[in-house]
Amino acid sequence: MANHNDFGKKAEDLAVEYLQKKGYKILVRNFRFQKAEIDIVTEKDSLIVVVEVKARSTDAFMLPQEAVNKRKISLIVSAANHYMEKFNIDQEVRFDIISVLPDEKGKLTIEHIIDAFEAFDAN
Fold first, then answer.
1. Of 85, 91, 97, whose CA–CA distance to 38 is shortest?
2. d(CA 19, CA 13)
3. Which of 11, 108, 92 is nearest to 45 (CA)?
4. pLDDT level of residue 1 (50, 70, 90 thresholds)
5. pLDDT tens for residues 41-80?
6. CATH architecture type of domain 3-122
7. Could you tell me which of 58, 49, 56 has the C-alpha nearest to residue 97?
8. Across the chain, what does the average pLDDT equal?
9. How far apart are CA 16 and CA 26, in angstroms?
10. In this structure, how many other beta carbons lie within 10 angstroms of the beta carbon of residue 43?
């Protein structure tokens, strides 16, 4: 596995730990639908929370969350709709982003952006 894949997996694992500590129930990881993938699907306070994890080794060019463009949002929303239909879930959905970056000392830090985008943002 390439180093960037290892880093991405480590970032997702860190995000899961963070979410669990915050009281989120992890429902599924890496849910795939066609060309789309949802990194983490969670539940908290009767909401389904779809979480996109973005990790970068540096923010010199862009913040990790800036990589979630309209096309990516459209794919995530499509996968989320499929997930909700497949499992016959009738709950409100929120879309969050977890950004993972190393600090000056190399320790990975998390920024949790709650309600980062809405389904209609993709249009």
1. 97
2. 10
3. 92
4. very low
5. 999 999 999 999 988 776 556 566 777 888 999 999 999 9
6. 3-Layer(aba) Sandwich (3.40)
7. 49
8. 87
9. 7
10. 14
| Span 10-33, pLDDT tens digits | 889 999 999 999 999 999 999 999
Q: What is the pLDDT of residue 118?
A: 84
Distance CA 65, CA 15 (A): 14
Burial class of residue 103, CB neighbours in 10 A (0-12, 13-18, 19+)? exposed
Task: Give the 3-state secondary structure of residue 108.
Answer: strand
Task: Return the CA Rg of the chain.
Answer: 14
Q: What is the pTM of this model?
A: 0.87
Rounded to an integer, what distance in angstroms lies between the CA atom of residue 101 and that of residue 7? 10
CA 62 to mean position of chain CA atoms? 17
CB 99 within 8 A of CB 116: no
Residue ranges of alpha helices (H) inside the chain are: 3-21, 70-86
The 3-state DSSP composition of the chain as helix, strand, coil percent (nearest 5) reads 35, 40, 25
Question: Domain-by-domain residue ranges, the chain?
Answer: 3-122
Of residues 30, 71, 34, the one with CA closest to residue 52: 30
